Structure formats: C-alpha cells, structure tokens
Amino acid sequence: MSRFIAPGSTIGIIGGGQLGRMMALSAKQMGYRVAVLEPSIDSPCAQVADVVIETAYGDIEGAKQITKVSDVITYEFENIDEETAKWMTEECYFPQGFELLAVTQHRLLEKDKISSLGVKVAPYAAIFDEKDIEKSMLSIGFPAVLKTCRGGYDGKGQAVVKNEHELRAAVSHLLKQGELVLEGWVPFQCEISVIVTRSTLGETKALPVAENIHHNNILHQSVVPARITEQMQNSAKNIALTLADGLNLVGTLAVEMFVKEDGSILVNELAPRPHNSGHYSIEACETSQFEQHIRAICGWPLGETTLHSPVVMENILGEHVEPMIEAIPLMSGVKLHLYGKKEAIEKRKMGHMTALGETTAKALEKLAKLHQY
Ligand code: AMP
Fold first, then answer.
1. Secondary structure of residue 189 in the 3-state scheme
2. Which atom of ligand 1 is found nearest the CA of 147?
3. What is the pTM of this model?
4. Domain 123-184, what architecture?
5. Can you tell me whether residue 123 is helix, strand or coil?
6. Residue 183 near ligand 1, beta carbon < 6 Å
7. Secondary structure (3-state) at 304
8. Theoretical Cys-Cys bridge with 81: which of 58, 204, 367, 369, CB 3.0 to 4.6 Å?
9. Is the CB of 268 under 6 A from ligand 1?
10. CATH topology of domain 188-371
11. Which CATH architecture has domain 10-94?
12. Ligand 1 pocket member 155 (CB < 6 A)
C-alpha cells in the first residue's frame, strides 16, 4: 500500500556511496531527514546524513536500527542480502520490495525476465558446471563474453573468449565465483541507457536517452541527447517503460542497452537504482534522477524530465583528481561534483563533471579543454 511520506520524515538509505550521497542531498532539499547504513567510516553519504549506522549491509541488527529511525527505506546499490531485504519488506515500509532486487542480482534471472517481457537481449546460455560448456558454445558461438551471474560490475567477473580453449580456461577460473552466463558478442555502434522511475502511485517517467562511452569497462562520458535517430531514442524509452511496467517497478531503474549496427536495440543489463549515466540530469533536466527517486518512494507526483540543454557528463577517477583540481580555474562553464572520498585510488569513482552546451559537440569541447590544462 502506498503511503505519502511527508517532509520532516526520515528516509533510510542502505549504502553510503556517491549515489546515496546525491539521493540524500535531494532528499534534504525537499525537507527530509536522512539515515544511512554503511560499514565504512566517513562515507560519501554519511557526510551529509543526519543519522549514520555503521554496520555490514547483511547485518540484521543494522537493518533493525535503520528501520527504527526511518519512515521509508531505500537503497543505493542492489547487492543487498536477500534475507535482509525480505525482512525489511515485512517489517517496515520498503516500497521497492525485494523481488526486483532478487532478479537484478542474478544475470540469468534478469535475462530470463527481460526476455519474458518481449524485450531482446544478446543470445545467452547458462554454465552451471563444466558439462555445460559444449552446449553453450554450440548455441552461442565465438566471440562471446563469459560473465559471472552475481556480483560483477565495471567489467569485473567477465572474460571475452574467442575459442574453446579460452572458454574452458575462463570457465575454470570464473566458476569459483558461482554460476556463469555465456553471452554472444554484440558488435554495437554505441551503448545507451535510459533511467526510468515509477512511483508508489504507479506514475512512470523516463529521462532522455544517454549515450555512454566506456574506457576500460568503466563509464567515461554520457552524452545527451544520444547521437542516434529520434526513432531509436523512442524505441529505447519504450523498452525502459515496458520493463518498468513488467517488473512492477517502484523507484528507479537504469536500463543499459546496446545499439547494433542495424539500429536495433538489445538490453545489456539493469540496475534498480539511480545510475552513473543519469548524473547529467542534475544540471540538464527539470528533475534529476535523484529527486525523481525521492519523489517516487515518498508518494509525490513525479517531476517533468524535460532536457533543458545538450549535456556531457564525465567521470573523475582517482587518477584524474589532481589534474582536475588544478584545472578548476578553467571551470566557469563546467560543474564539478566531488564525492568526499579521502583516498584517490586509481579507477575509483571520485566525482564527475557536467558541461552544458548549445550542442553536445560544444559541451565535449569544454571538457576537452580541461584536459589540456
Ligand atoms: P556489463 O558489466 O555487462 O555492463 O559489461 C561491461 C561492458 O562490457 C559493457 O558496457 C560493454 O562495453 C562490454 N560488453 C558486455 N557484454 C558485451 C557483449 N555481449 N558484447 C559486446 N560488448 C559487451
């Protein structure tokens, strides 16, 4: 049953990273208090929260503490232990529920579910043990991508395989991490994503399509509007809306997709939360993905998602922090976001920048100038 969570109430966020921080900042702007559960000390979200509970994510005592002080519970990352998620669904107001979490925590369940809703994914086959190699290889062919069903992100737990020998080696290595899925290689023209949000009142809205450029499997830039035809953008949005309905979404879902050479679209993966590729919406859209998420779980009407300007978002990883801080004198037309992480470890997401422009090419130019500093 949907409830209206009035400003002044407390929103409990599981996970204290940058997504939790930006969710919390939107929630604070809207008049809420914020509690966060996160094991690490001085996390990005803890720095802006009213109440901090420092326990492991799967610790039921921690879950009890956060539910005691919160009027609604949400999360910033999907790998929440199933027991805890089920407990929260029964014991407190957790409108997003555990069902979508269970599906998106497991690549195979996720692909089965997406396909059952009539949405296309790359060809795939399950590998539960070495006996499945032969069959999967015959149905998928090469090249292919072997992925762990659980826990992979930013390309971790994955291997591109070009022949049987490489597949066998990768399977014996990755099977230690549990079930696997072999996916056909998709020769794509670009990668895109759509962030869709559905409220507890059943209202659904999608943000404009982002074109995502990865470096070493980590998101580097999101270019919006995506440089694909309007028809393709509409197809991508329709896919996201179909999934939102079919999955009984509450809250936010990021749908990552491949655009093939022939213009057709396949879904790569889902994340049931705000997403790195939606950060551009903070400056470029009428409603950011974070505000939209808070509206959705608190029973507000959703905000408009109009794009006010072409935009490019660029991530700042550990190795980029120093040069970007030196480039601040050149940032009059660029918005800098830093997440308050102390240690600038290589490849760690430390912040991002957003450049608006008359065109995406002009926004890209603004960011390129910073690299020449
Ligand atoms: P994922 O963790 O599944 O999002 O994969 C990370 C990145 O690897 C994607 O953003 C793609 O650039 C690439 N990738 C993953 N799966 C495939 C595939 N089946 N075909 C081609 N590229 C892929």
1. strand
2. 3
3. 0.97
4. 2-Layer Sandwich (3.30)
5. coil
6. yes
7. coil
8. 58
9. yes
10. D-amino Acid Aminotransferase; Chain A, domain 1 (3.30.470)
11. 3-Layer(aba) Sandwich (3.40)
12. yes
